[in-house]
């Protein structure tokens, strides 16, 4: 009986593999390691560091190859040329959003980040226009960032030089800038509701980068039937959405269509204008999803970059001292740094860019998908195929950035010490799906970090040589280790 069962199972697996290969059209896809039935190439990938696995596989299969995450094939693009060719040169064809099951359970295809087609185009176009109207990229939002930078400094000043964990304060600052655009409101840093929201964003970013969530994304059936940290992520997002819905209801009660106050008001007005259109994408559900996307993306990525940045500055006091010397020379101590100062501060500008390059925050990007059948480098990629783009392979290109494993602002300076732009600088991705808030994030990183260094010496609790800057998680995002430091007034 046992022998018959083994034979049946073996035959079933062979039939499944044969059917799988036929239905996937693997012969037309780029080459890649042979997948196993049901689990695909999971055993050939280190789920604790997928980006490193992709680099190793690219050495065998080249810059374009196929990987199976469970039953689903994905095409991987590795290296600047392949990434640029797809996301920029064939931007429209590669502008779809790929499969990301945990997030799909949250967004259900709504919002900006995980929507597709007509919905994505309309919501993104509206969001970009509205964000610009409320000052994103303009002087008015710069003043708002400067005000928040001042609040940030005052909060660190309250530590009186005692050891502190900067995580929550660094999260509050960019979140308040986003809140001023979405809700026309900023929170006090001690506001419990605010701290709860920050805690949920920080926890989700950390959990999304754990091996378990990579397993959930590979085998989505787990999400619906097994316990685990994915349920905590879903609960956190549900709580954030509940808060957003509460704010939407408040806005509905006080809405003046002739005087929109913020992003939510503009969306509600657009809903009224399209009330006759049964196919309209402007619904309450889409409003909640869009605001949640902007809220989360505009908070956690910037705050994590700053947190990682301060750790790197603690590790490299000689770089910190050089940046502070430039700040003292150009800005002084008696006025706020501005974006106009950046052109006269090439070293500080290079430091901020190098932080983003070095930490490689989202190493494999948010997954893309092709919007139609595509012939790419003589391979056939069918419509809907998930595309994984290795941003690590671009940010760590050793021809563009010599010794990429070293934290060195010189990667963005020419021989004369002037700032040097690079097409390989893609922490915000590139092409049609690049981060909608890139301009705001770059402004925040420069102004927040410059203002901190203008006002404080950063003192570690251990010898800089003993500071470990390795990420504690290498999944969806790179998460810096926890640490304490002294903020000593200049």
From TrEMBL:
The protein's topology relative to the membrane is: Peripheral membrane protein
Cofactor(s) the protein needs: heme
Q: Name one GO molecular function term.
A: iron ion binding
GO CC, sorted alphabetically, is: endoplasmic reticulum membrane
Question: Which Pfam families does this one have?
Answer: p450 (PF00067)
* Protein's GO biological process: organic acid metabolic process; xenobiotic metabolic process
**What class does this enzyme belong to in the EC scheme?**
oxidoreductase
Tell me which UniProt keywords the record has, alphabetically: Endoplasmic reticulum, Heme, Iron, Membrane, Metal-binding, Microsome, Monooxygenase, Oxidoreductase
Q: What is its main location?
A: endoplasmic reticulum
The EC number(s) attached to this protein equal: 1.14.14.1
Q: Where in the cell is it found?
A: Endoplasmic reticulum membrane; Microsome membrane
User: In which family does this protein belong, per the annotation?
Assistant: Belongs to the cytochrome P450 family.
For this protein, the record's PANTHER family field holds: CYTOCHROME P450 2C9, CYTOCHROME P450 508A4-RELATED
The protein, known as: unspecific monooxygenase
What is the native source organism of this protein? Answer: Castor canadensis (American beaver)
